[in-house]
Specification:
76% helix
Length: 281
């Protein structure tokens, strides 16, 4: 009886915590939609800012955010997946690999402003990429590598060991087993890490302030060595540095940023759902 009562109490507490989290998210979205939906017009989404960012739209910031997210995915996902494959499938379980895994976990908790300073020193100054899309994407990639590596390792570990044993018993090499058996079954879990990476890359402000973001640009970047605007830094600028900006414009910019991140997340979620349907275990 006491065990049954304890289970009901635990269930109630977990359900209450879930309700609080969901209610907080819905409240935030409700505030953003209520205050920002009036600013979302075709002109707002497709024109450049003017009059010191007090008028016009946010199109260059939207495009810049897309470029940074895509660049982060291009650099971080392959490198993170290969690192996770080595750590999970090839590396021996010794003191060195345990230290590497601990370092990866600790890197996930490093403040983003530290990554911004690191990107400024390495990519902008030392490698002479300048304040550019390349510098910003590389900095965001390094910041998101721990997420991708951790999620990929968990996904690889979730594939039953019997799958590997059967493949090796049939004469496949270790790499063939990983490529044709382990990775296809781990992709849904890997995409979870990609989704988390996209959300963090799209919303970060400090790293791109040091490496790529421009205060205002009336034109789109022409190469990866150009500066660009981004929605997080644009929102920061119009909220703290530009006077007399309409409150609806600030909320509209925040709502657009959430929409861009949700677009990438939804795309990844759809792919993950389709791949999960094909999985037979």
């Amino acid at each position: 009886m006491n065990a049954h009562r304890s289970e009901k109490i635990a269930f109630g507490l977990l359900f209450a915590a879930t309700v609080v989290v969901v209610a907080a998210v819905l409240f935030i979205l409700g505030v953003l939609i209520k205050n920002g939906i009036g600013a979302i017009t075709w002109e707002f989404l497709t024109t450049a800012p003017r009059d010191g960012m007090r008028a016009g739209g946010i199109f260059p910031a939207i495009v810049g955010t897309f470029y940074l997210i895509l660049g982060t995915v291009v650099f971080a996902v392959p490198l993170g997946i290969f690192a996770a494959i080595y750590l999970n499938e090839y590396a021996a379980d010794n003191m060195l690999t345990r230290l590497i895994r601990l370092a990866i976990i600790n890197l996930a908790g490093v403040p983003s402003v530290v990554y911004g300073l690191f990107g400024l020193g390495l990519f902008v100054i030392f490698l002479r990429f300048g304040t550019s899309i390349l510098s910003g994407a590389l900095t965001l990639s390094i910041m998101n590598l721990p997420i991708v590596i951790t999620a990929t390792r968990e996904a690889l570990s979730s594939v039953p060991q019997s799958f590997r044993e059967v493949s090796l018993a049939l004469g496949a090499t270790k790499w063939q087993t990983i490529r044709h058996v382990v990775l296809p079954n781990a992709i849904p879990g890997i995409l979870t890490g990609v989704i988390l990476e996209v959300g963090r890359a799209g919303g970060e402000t400090a790293p791109i302030l040091f490496t790529v973001a421009a205060f205002s640009l009336p034109f789109l970047p022409h190469s990866i060595f150009d500066q660009c605007m981004a929605l997080p830094t644009h929102l920061f600028a119009i909220s703290t540095e530009v006077p007399n900006v309409s409150l609806s414009v600030r909320y509209g910019t925040a709502l657009t940023l959430i929409g861009v991140v949700l677009f990438f997340n939804l795309f990844s979620i759809i792919i993950r759902m389709r791949l999960r349907r094909r999985r037979q275990w």
